[in-house]
Amino acid sequence: MEEGLGSIDGRVERLLHTVTQPWQNERNLNARTLPKNLGTMQQLFERSQQIQQMFTHVSTMVRDFTEGVNQLRATKSTENCQVMSNLAAKGSSPIVGLEMAPGRAGSFSI
Prior knowledge:
mainly alpha, 80% helix
């Protein structure tokens, strides 16, 4: 009988300990879940680093592309101006004259 009472008393004591010290349960739960949570956090960190690297790479590609397009436009514009100047100097420009009306902007005749 004493064993039975002792075991009941032991269970009651453990139950009282659980009820009166709930932070102990929380600590035990944290100890069990901490490694899993740390693993998840590590994976999230690694993924965020990969995303940041991809974003940087794409941003660099877009910037390089934009600079290339702007250089091409500037070169093309300069070439067009040079061609027109050369043709005008030779007298073979498709622009034959500039018609000016009083008080109006001029217009080219082709």
